[in-house]
Every structure is written in structure tokens, then in C-alpha cells.
Amino acid sequence: TLAVIAAVGVYAVFFVDTPPLSQVRAYADQADSWLLPVFFILYIVITQFPIPRTFLTLSSGILFGPVVGCVVALSATTISGGLALWGIRKFFVNDAARARINGRIDAINARLKARGWLAIASLRMIGAVPFFVLNLTASFTQVSLKHFVIATFVGSAPATIATVFIGDALTGAANPALIGVTGVLLTLGLIGLALDYKLPVA
Fold it and tell me: What's the CA gap between 132 and 186, in Å, rounded?
């Protein structure tokens, strides 16, 4: 997924005419103060559903630039993940359903309960599991909300920041360093998963 995002970003920077996106940025800069909070709320609401958040993250970079865009996208992602976990557990996961699911994934559940932050952060980093699917799956496990939120923030940060910078680059502010970002993220995520697999479950 990250490789596709990077490829699209690089192609757009060098082969797609950027003035229209520059005009979008200019409009966002001149917009009233309602734009940022409305976008922030929409980001959280939309990502509660099985809809890829890539477009919203790119839009953060296009509309708000690299700094504000990163703050908006990463904070909205973290809140969205925590809200999804809490909401699914509270309204959709009853004891019977949890017992049936947990009986089939005892090993995974034990690992997530003991060290869930590492597995969640690694999966977020490499994008191995879609955002919505990981939220849903984790809801049936015993990973704590606190650890899930922290892992979502840490694991989502690299890819989110890279995607925001790509969105910013689409307005004409190209950054060649982004080409190697996806490889680094993938490597770090795989190392985290390998470490989680090797470490004993307490």
C-alpha cells in the first residue's frame, strides 16, 4: 500500500500539472476558520467505516501543508482508532461473541494482552492490515484501550507523515527524500513484528 502511495505521489509530482492543487491550497489558506475543524471531524467520522483513509491524509497535506496537515491527520487517526475500539466493544461485542472469537484466537489474544502495543504499532506501520479491519479485530481481543491508542499513534505516525508530505508535494513543494520513506517504514514494521514473535508471552 505504501509503495503504491509513493509511486502515485512521485508520478504526480513530476508528470501531473500541479497549479490546480496550488489553487486548492490557496483557497484553504483564505478559507474561514471552519475548514480545519470540519475536516478534522469528517476525518474521524469517515474512518469509522471501511473506507481507506489515504485520500483524507493526502488531503490534509494539500489543504493545510506539512506541519498542520501532520497534526490534523495524525491526531484524527489516533482519535478515530480509539473511538472505533471503544464503540465496537461497547455496542457490538457482547460476552458470547467475545467468548467464541477468543476461543479461536487464544494465542493471538494472549500476545496482544501481554504486549499488544508492539504488534498493533508494527501492523499500523507496515499497513499489513487495513485501518478499519485492525480496529475491528482488536475489539475482540484483550488489548487495552490505552495501549491500543498509543500504538495507533506511534505506528501510524511514519506513514501518515509521509503521506501528508506527499500531499504537500502535490501542490508543488516536492521533497525527493520521500522516495525512500516507504522502504524504511516497511523495514521497521517487519522488525517490530519479528521482535514481537520472538519475545516470550508473559
Answer: 20
CA-CA-CA-CA torsion for 110, 143, 161, 197, nearest 10 degrees?
A: -10
- The CA distance from 25 to 62, in Å, is 6
- Cα–Cα distance for residue pair 5/11, rounded to 1 Å: 10
> Quick one: average pLDDT of 86-115?
67
pLDDT at 2: 47
- CA 87, 91, 94: angle at the middle one, nearest 5? 120
Q: pLDDT, tens digit, for every residue of 21-73? A: 666 677 777 776 788 999 999 999 999 999 989 899 999 988 888 889 989 99
* CA–CA distance, 70 with 151 (Å, rounded to integer): 17
pLDDT at position 148 is 92
> How far is it, in rounded angstroms, from Cα 165 to Cα 89?
34
What secondary structure does DSSP assign to 129-149, as a single string?
Answer: S-HHHHHHHHHTS---HHHHH
Eight-state DSSP code of residue 48? T
Cβ-count burial of 127 within 10 angstroms (0-12 exposed, 13-18 middle, 19+ buried)? buried
Spatial separation of the C-alpha atoms in residues 153 and 140, rounded to whole Å: 20
- Residue 133, number of CB atoms within 10 A of its CB: 12
* Per-residue pLDDT tens digits for 166-177: 888 887 755 555
